[in-house]
Amino acid sequence: RVNKAKVRLVSLELRGKGELCNISLSSNEHIRHFYDAADWLIKYQDERGGWPIPVARKVIAGLLEVKPVRASYFSGNKKYIESAAKATSLFLVNVTQGGIRTYFPGDYVWYEEYPTSPSLFVLNGFMYSLLGLYDLKQSSTAPTNPSQTLFDEGMKSLRMLLPLFDTGQGSLYDLRHFTSQVAPNLARWDYHTTHITQLLTLATVDSSSADFLRATSERWKDYMVGRRARHN
Asked: Which positions fall inside the D-glucuronyl C5-epimerase C-terminal domain (predicted)?
């Protein structure tokens, strides 16, 4: 594999008709975009810890928590982690009241990527929220840390509900077929791959769930090469 830092552009040739407004090379432009997004979240965060635009609430389910925590870590600026801690309050508020918290039958808590009624129970958004909560609880120095409880509650739900997303030949994107009595919403392969990556990542940070998450991810990997669950 070629080290990108050692790659140098020596020539650029264009053929045909057209117009170029700007050509620039950058090896760290993604860092600027990273902080732009983190700063946007802080700028438009309201008093409750969320955002006035309803659709924007879904970023709390992972992106909000992960981005400010890591921005704080890399920059040393505490404003980012303070924003993430403030947003945690919406994990305690039900979807019907403007938050992202909902429950699956059996009183299993779920953090919604799309706060809708009825709930969708989107799997990848839920697992992103767990990764964000893990980052936050590891970074917090507060004597009381709600992100620890939120993470533990979420992992309990994941252990119990994950089998519902297993089709025997792939995974489901969400559980809308259960809540809305419609056709199942199968995860396309790129989302299925995301599910596997998230499961393996969570297995590294939660020892009590590690064996189960790894076993599930291995089975889901097999689905990608044509293996299927047994029939009766």
From this structure: 69-221
The CATH number of domain 30-223, selected from 1.10.579.10, 1.50.10.10, 1.10.10.60, 1.10.8.80: 1.50.10.10
Q: Is the pTM value of this prediction over 0.85?
A: no
Buried b (16+ CB within 10 A) or exposed e, 26-48: eeeeeeeebeeebbebeeebeee
The segments of the chain whose pLDDT lies below 70 read: 1-2, 4-5, 52-75, 141-143
* Torsion 49-54-60-63 (CA) sign: negative
Q: Where do we find the tokens 């519902």?
A: 164
In whole angstroms, give the CA distance from residue 103 to residue 36: 34
Measure the CA–CA gap between 168 and 151, rounded to whole angstroms. 28
Beta bridge partners of 102: 110
Cα separation values, 211 from 9, 54, 151, 215, 216, Å:
47, 37, 18, 6, 9
Domain boundaries, the chain: 30-223
**Matching residue, tokens 């508020």:** 93
pLDDT of residue 208: 96
What distance in Å separates the CA atoms of residue 217 and residue 204, rounded to the nearest whole number? 13
